[in-house]
Each structure stands twice: as structure tokens, then as C-alpha cells.
Amino acid sequence: MLPRRLSLINARFLTSVMIDESAARALHRQVRVLCWIPSTEKQLNSKVRAVNDTWVKRCDGHVFFVDTQHHNASSDVIELGVKDGRGHLTDKSVAALAYVYEKYGKDYDWFLKGDDDAYVVVENLKFLLSHYNPNTPVYLGHLYKWHLREGSGGASYVLSREALRLLNVNGIRRNKCRLTGHEDVEIGRCLHTVGMSSHNTLDRFGRETFHPLNPSTHIGADCCSQLSISFHKVNPDLMRVVDHLLYRTSVYGRNLDMKSLQLHFIEPGIVPPLE
């Protein structure tokens, strides 16, 4: 049991008392991100709860989109009027992107689409986004090696404010976005239809930051960026474990070289086409 004096200190202070969070806090104020997550009613008490308990609280705003059967009055859960099921993921995302643009398009700099079984390190995401201008059309995420236009929705993807506007005004409203097929592929194709290019999300060593599979599938000798942003197929228990290890555990004597990180880590720019 904690001494009475310590028990009166809030949990937030106890977890950060020996951590210098000044850089993360400064970036948090500068880069505003809305996180939107498609889900279903049956996941509200499992996957959605785990997301709420962990990474999504570090976004500047968030919203969950569910099917028409939901009757919860929670303000962060929105009914889209789209049928549930994998066969409707694309039209659900298109409807969600339209809603996000109408409701929040002017309130945030960036718009992250995450899954209810994805884990996102929001601070690392914001560091990557700080290299880009949200008033230009930018599309970021894990890119399939065989077709650089198409991102992996499971690994999460991010649109700048201007990218979201162009997607809606020149794509969704003009019926240029397909409502069937693989969601991540079709959204990527629609973005390119309206003139958008994919941007680099690799670190300077060529390592991925957005990971489309479970962490155990990716982990290896040189698999992942030191500033990895997302992993997919993370169950609620693992999500809470990862969150605890990242934010409540430190390794004595190991500190980030912030100067080298700022100068050399990310190499922003448009991904060149495959030859």
C-alpha cells in the first residue's frame, strides 16, 4: 500500500513524475488530430472500451462509427445508417469521411482512421505529421509494396485537412469513390482519382512506422521504426499491456537523443511511383 502522502497524488502524476514530457506536450498543442474509428455495437464493451482506455484519449478528439442497430446515447458514438459487416466496410468509411468533413473539417489539422483492434502511438504520429503542412493534400499510412497507391486501413491512415476536403468535394460528392471492394484499397484509389499522392512514412533507415499486423508478427531484428506509429490486430488485453509498457515503464539509463531525432529521423516527401 502506498504511504498516505503518496496516495493523495493523482495517478497521472505518479506515472510521469520521472519523465520529461515537455517535447510531447508542445507537439500535442501544435498538431491537432481527430481520430475516427469504425466499429460495431457488439464491440462497444470490449474493443471500443479498450481503445477508449488506452491510445484514443491522446487524440485531440475522437468518434466511433457503428451500424444502425446502436441505441447508446454516448456522444462519441455515431450511427451512420450503414449495415454492419465486412461487406459494408467501404461504404461505412465513405459515410464516416463525409460525416467527419461536415462536422469537424475545420476544427482539426489531421484526421486519423483507426480500427477498433489497432493500437496507435499518438505522440509518434504527431511527430511524423509535424513534418507536413495540413493545408496541403497529404495522405499517410502503410503502403502495400506492390501498389504504392493503396494503403492498409488496418494499420491506420491519416488525411490532412486539405486532403479530407478534396476527397469529399471532388470525390465523394461526385460519386467517384466506390462503395464496394476492399476499404483501404478503394479509399486509396479515390484519393488518387482526385489528384492526391501518397507520402513517405518510412524512417531514414527504410523501416516501417505503420504496421498492418499484430506486433508479434512484425517484431524481428530490424522490422520496425524506433518511432513506430501503429499496429493492427491487437486484442483488448494486449492493447492494455502495450499501453502500460509504453507509458508506465522505463529502462534505466536509456534516453532518446532528441537532437538527432529531430534532424534526421523522418524524410518527408511524396512516394515515387513503382518502375
TrEMBL record:
InterPro entries tied to this protein: C1GALT1/C1GALT1_chp1, Fringe-like_glycosylTrfase
GO cellular component, one term: membrane
Pathway annotation: Protein modification; protein glycosylation
Keyword Membrane: yes
Keywords of the record: Glycosyltransferase, Membrane, Nucleotide-binding, Signal-anchor, Transferase, Transmembrane, Transmembrane helix
Subcellular location: Membrane
Leading EC class: transferase
GO molecular function: glycoprotein-N-acetylgalactosamine 3-beta-galactosyltransferase activity; nucleotide binding
The EC number(s) this enzyme carries: 2.4.1.122
Residue span, Fringe-like glycosyltransferase domain: 37-235
Membrane topology: Single-pass type II membrane protein
Keyword Membrane: yes
Assigned protein family: Belongs to the glycosyltransferase 31 family. Beta3-Gal-T subfamily.
Protein name from the UniProt record: N-acetylgalactosaminide beta-1,3-galactosyltransferase
